[in-house]
Amino acid sequence: MAKEECITQWNKTGDTSTLRNRKICLTSEKTLQAPSTSLSKDKHSHTAGHLSEDDTQSSNGAQFSTRGNLSKDPPSRVLLMLLVGLSFSTRLYKITEPPHVCWDETHFGKMGSYYINRTFFFDVHPPLGKMLIGLAGYMTGYDGSFPFIKPGDKYDHHNYWGMRGFCSVLGSCLPIFAYLIVLELSQSQTAALITATLLIFDTGSITISQYILLDPILLFFIMAAVLSMVKFNKQRYRPFAASWWLWLVLTGVNLAGALGVKFVGLFVILLVGLNTIWDLWRILGDLSLSLVEIAKHFLARVVGLILFPLFLYVTIFAIHFVVLNKSGPGDGFFSSAFQSRLIGNNLHNASMPEYLAFGSTITIKNLRIAGGYLHSHWHLYPEGVGSKQQQVTAYLHKDYNNLWLVHRPDENESQSGTPDLVRHGDIIRLEHVETTRNLHSHLHEAPLTKKHFQVTGYGINGTGDKNDLWQVEVCGGRKGDLVKVLRSKVRFLHRATGCVLYSSGKTLPKWGWEQVEVTCSPYLKETPSSQWNIEDHINPSLPNISLSVLKPHFLEILLESHIVMIRGNSGLKPKDNEMNSKPWHWPVNYQGLRFSGVNDTEYRVYLLGNPVVWWIHLASLGLYPIMAAVAAIALKRGFSLSQKRIEHSHVLMREGGLLLLAWLLHYAPFYTMGRILYYHHYFPAMLFSSMLTGITFDILLKSTDLLIRRPYCDWLQRLGQMVLLFSILYSFYLFHPLSYGMKGPLAHEPGSAMAGLKWMDSWEF
Amino acid sequence: MLQLPLVVTAQVDLVLLVITQLSMWSRLSQLSYPNAVVFDEVYYGQFVSLYMKRVFFIDDSGPPLGHMILALGAYFGGFDGNFVWNRIGAEYPSSVSVCFLRLCPAVCGSLSVPLVYLLTLELRFSHLSALGAALLLLLENSLIVQSRFMLLESVLVFFVLLAFFSYLRFHNNTHSWFRFCWLFLSGASCAAAVGVKYMGVFSYLLLLGVASLHTWDLIGDRTISHLRVCVQCVCRAVCLLVVPILLYVFWFYIHLTLLNRSGPHDQLMSSSFQASLEGGLSRITKGQPLEVAYGSQVTLRSSSSQPIPCWLHSHKANYPIRYESGRGSSHQQQVTCYPFKDVNNWWIIKEPDRQQLVVSSPPRPVRHGDVIQLVHGMTSRFLNSHDVAAPMSPHAQEVSGYIDFNVSMPAQNLWRVEVSNREAESESWKTILSDVRLVHVNTSAVLKMSGASLPGWGFRQMEVVAEKLFKAHSPGWTVEEHRYGTSQEQKEREAELHSPTHIDVDRKISFWAKFLELQWKMLTVKQEDSEHKYSSAPMEWITMETNIVYWLHPSTNAQIHLIGNPVSWGVASLSLLAYQLLAAVYLLRRRRGFKDLPDAAWSRFLSLGCVCVGGFLVNFVPFLLMEKTLFLYHFLPALCYLLLLGPPLLEHTHTHLLSGTPRRVLSVCVLFVLLSVFLAFRTFCPLTYGTPELSANQLQALRWRGSWDILYRRR
């Protein structure tokens, strides 16, 4: 079969897929027949005694069906085992140190504990990563009792090694995946080895794998997705075979995993998507395929890469909601209906007076998703923002400042038996319980939404003016309708100006404690932003009735939690005084992150890439475009090139291009992000950059024969590889304390273990 | 050798001529009405005034070319800059020639119409399509409004269109060497477009993309010799890369040459920049001694405190014994950073083991690495730091003014001078030029501003702390005012400090340094972005949900609005959709081997898409990602591309997709659409030209969309 194919394709020239197949048929012929066929002969004599060339050949031979060949090949299997050993040993070494909470372990460890305790929480990332952490902890005997309050807390007797170990096992897979990807892409063992070495001995990748973080899990899924995508690409000549399906489905699974850990997984989805579109475009252009077959290809990808991952992703959330059924710290971010699901929440099997009445104490929640409670506090609007009265905001957390008293407009209090119920169209006055100010609005611009009016707290002890009067309207109700607690959507119309109480969703600056703006909107369109519901309702003189609130549908919960997460993510704005990491810092390794310890007495771990390795990456990012451009122009101008060089050019342009695209997709979007950025956001991009480095340097070294004559160029090539290897190893020896912990004086003092290694002033160790 | 008879043949495209006439008439007639400040004229006007007075300013909204073009018109009109631009609707006095102020944008706006005509021809579509595109542009109310006032969008549109037109001219003329003039013109207009507004960058990038595709084809052409290919590539790179960059810098050169007086924005710039401006800092610092010596009296300006300047300051008030949080302090004298000039900003540089506070003769300059003490001029306290947490930033050390009153804490008042720009300047500490880091000798902490401000007890001044050195390039301090101290006695010295500084020398920094600093400042100065009453979101532009009131007559209902022509906007959006649909169908079918179009028509179709759809995308999509306040007029460049797209697309449909009766129907439809474009234009004319005045009912009737703000008075 393979033979026929290569004979038919031998005749065509120019098409690169042919070139690959030509190689294949060369090698298969070589293995099947005597090595003296005329075709392979000149090739063989050309490359005789040439080890690196042999590498390319043998791995080329492994292109499709012969993939097994390679693993049967003893040296490569030994090599792989060696890499596995090295990778695992570097990552698992000193895994339990330091025995205290490091950096973001305080969040993710805590969230892992929440799963074990089944407590509901809110986080800006999707749940898969934390679920896995929780699971790993559970399996290794961690009972979820450690509070993870702040970095530096001692773990003492708690079993934390399991969670760390799980993360570092996933992290250890990264160099191996990178090795396999590069091998598959470039068919060059040298390139794959360079990549693996760069990653194994990079202090940054070691450090980030060793702690309870989402990153190793995310990186694992990203790399696994890319690996299966690359494998799937190589299956293109045997569509719908079992292995074809396997890799397709695996790609889908890993995509779902990546997205399920962090939204950064979207970038790898984009990469796979682009690759798939490109693939489909190629299939569409293949006129030998009928439209039905093309449709089959298309549908298979839709199922494998869209529907199936989506199903998995939704399943993850389903598990998340089923597992977390107890009330916890994240309740206030969600709607009243959502909260009623949670055991221990005051809305769970709630019992309160059913209809809103005058004299009740209530909390009012905005109906837009992740809208907060109407809130006020002892702080005034600053100078220049409307009138200098008390702030009224929307606040996402439960707080006693969210309580309001419902009054009649005229008298202050009338305690006469059962209080009157509030009806649609009634005029009320809302008094803030804590500060006794009335909810007030007037014709001043709102602080952020300039088209709306400002809402303030005004008056003292309930006395105010006519700007404090609001008309209650039940949405869809008629005059005289009662206001149901929890279930009615209510609007508050300002009597004097006719505007409606509105939550804009914009975050106030520092003076407003970064709470959400509340305004009075003159536009009366009915949107969730202008609708509110009464959540808590306390009135001792009314009988409590048990309310079974409508349980929300699963899809509603899913949508709601996503909107809450996205809001939370974009709400992570850099603070004014904080030193914010800029995307351009990352590739130059400008500044790392302190994982643990600041002073010279503490055990310090500093997340920073091995500078030699990272600067090699940087160099290759500069070299690659030049080499690719030269190759592209040479091919385009039709220079006569040797077979080997054409092969190299294609690897550079096609596979290198794929990696460069992947790097760009994982790096460039950060420039447009307004949220706070950290150094570790670069790690997905770094992985792609190191694979690109492998390919670039491999081809660069193999092109030494452009410079000097035959035997010397091989020596030069060998020398280059050795220099690369030793500089990586030596720099790892120098910088390994960054990952495995340093004690004693800081680097700018001569007594330090890191003395003289602070090559950039911006490094903080 | 002269050949007789001498014949001159001239071809005049009458249609083009008529179109130009019409567009001139629509944009230039009655330019001086209304005789009042209209909308953003209030913003650009202040810069025009500053140009007339040659006062330096920074505007972060865009590079200076646009402002300079406006100022050029004002210059011709004899405007002297004496007008207070403080509110929209303020009447111009008779001394201001309003017509000239608005002339340049109006001319650019009216030239855009014939340019569109020519551009369509260069895209190789027929004269009829060209006429259609030109008419759409001519009858677009929003473009007319935008070009009739002192605003920049029409200038930007003009340069962008010119760049594309001249590039296509270059591309279509394959054989004469004269075509490189067109290429040069294209590069120059790109530079101009970028120089007017940063948005021009995206059009420039698109043009570069198109050009590199063409160049790539050229490289692939194996019939041309290598040498020729090289020469061609170099020419293109020079015209499209080098020329624009040089010209862009040139705009700044003119800008900086024109503006040589100090003004309101001086303080945003570094001391050395300010010193190069006439007046302002250079007046104060003229003739100061250059080298800081022991005994010098100096004010130290923080380099990090942008945009507000501040100077190292101390005053007779101590840190409170306990802060609100319950933490304790040293209860020594406060040291702060104070954003105003004050006599308490003066410090004296003292050599640690000598007592005297005057400059010896000859002066002994302070160099990099020297250890000094700083004495506060008015209170004689030493600048001191110690291991006490700072008031607002507890991770850093407190800085205080110390005097030995036998308190329990020892003095730690030695500071090492580190000149951080010593490579560029020199080892010795120079006034204004040197950026100096003051390192505390005992703790190797660095003196810096924390960015927090102190509460009431510190008079809300900025906090100064000493922080352990971790960050490179942590900005330091610059000596701004400087003189050699002469008075031994404290009383005399106080009198000396109160007297202003003087003397005379000139200090220059190079143009490049000024350019880089100015450009960097323009890109990084952030003004508080807040929502504006008429701001809008990008998606509202396409659906025409928004308008802007530009001007309202103080007593009548006459008013000017930025409202588009609803029919042409509809046509524009439809043509965008239609193009995408057609392109998708064609592409898929071609991939399956069906060639619906002859190659020439296909390449024409593609280049239309590249220029028009590409142009629309690059001018629209960035706004979706931007987090600044946006207005409807930001959409106008993108709209121009869309208007340009419609007629050629119709021509394409007419020639390639239809035949027989549908063809005739299409022609009738086109006529009908043109008629309705004209009618819609007529209908909105009163809001475009602000005349005639309409009654409240008529205005009501013009409110085609509920979200439009149209104002009227009830009488």
From TrEMBL, chain A:
This enzyme's EC code(s): 2.4.1.109
EC supergroup of this enzyme: transferase
Biased composition (Polar residues): 57-69
GO cellular component: endoplasmic reticulum membrane
Locations listed in the record: Endoplasmic reticulum membrane
Coiled-coil ranges from the UniProt annotation: none
Protein name as catalogued: Protein O-mannosyl-transferase 2
Recorded catalytic activity of this chain's protein: a di-trans,poly-cis-dolichyl beta-D-mannosyl phosphate + L-threonyl-[protein] = 3-O-(alpha-D-mannosyl)-L-threonyl-[protein] + a di-trans,poly-cis-dolichyl phosphate + H(+); a di-trans,poly-cis-dolichyl beta-D-mannosyl phosphate + L-seryl-[protein] = 3-O-(alpha-D-mannosyl)-L-seryl-[protein] + a di-trans,poly-cis-dolichyl phosphate + H(+)
Pathway in which the depicted protein is active: Protein modification; protein glycosylation
Membrane-topology descriptor: Multi-pass membrane protein
Organism of origin: Champsocephalus gunnari (Mackerel icefish)
UniProt record similarity statement: Belongs to the glycosyltransferase 39 family.
Residue stretches making up the MIR domain: 353-409, 419-475, 480-537
Transmembrane segments: 176-201, 213-232, 244-277, 298-323, 612-635, 656-676, 682-701, 722-740
Keywords from the named record: Endoplasmic reticulum, Glycosyltransferase, Membrane, Repeat, Transferase, Transmembrane, Transmembrane helix
Sequence segments annotated as region (Disordered): 35-70
Lineage: Eukaryota, Metazoa, Chordata, Craniata, Vertebrata
GO MF annotation, one: dolichyl-phosphate-mannose-protein mannosyltransferase activity
InterPro entries: ArnT-like_N (IPR003342), MIR_dom_sf (IPR036300), MIR_motif (IPR016093), PMT-like (IPR027005), PMT_4TMC (IPR032421)
UniProt cross-references to Gene3D superfamilies, sorted A to Z: 2.80.10.50
Pfam family of the protein (one): MIR
SUPFAM superfamilies in the cross-refs: MIR domain
UniProtKB/TrEMBL annotation, chain B:
An example molecular function term from Gene Ontology annotations: dolichyl-phosphate-mannose-protein mannosyltransferase activity
Reactions performed catalytically: a di-trans,poly-cis-dolichyl beta-D-mannosyl phosphate + L-seryl-[protein] = 3-O-(alpha-D-mannosyl)-L-seryl-[protein] + a di-trans,poly-cis-dolichyl phosphate + H(+); a di-trans,poly-cis-dolichyl beta-D-mannosyl phosphate + L-threonyl-[protein] = 3-O-(alpha-D-mannosyl)-L-threonyl-[protein] + a di-trans,poly-cis-dolichyl phosphate + H(+)
UniProt keywords, alphabetically: Endoplasmic reticulum, Glycosyltransferase, Membrane, Repeat, Transferase, Transmembrane, Transmembrane helix
Enzyme Commission number, as recorded: 2.4.1.109
Domain MIR: 289-352, 363-420, 427-482
Pfam families: MIR (PF02815), PMT (PF02366), PMT_4TMC (PF16192)
Membrane topology per record: Multi-pass membrane protein
Signal sequence range: none
Subcellular location: Endoplasmic reticulum membrane
Family in the record: Belongs to the glycosyltransferase 39 family.
Protein name in UniProt: Protein O-mannosyl-transferase 1
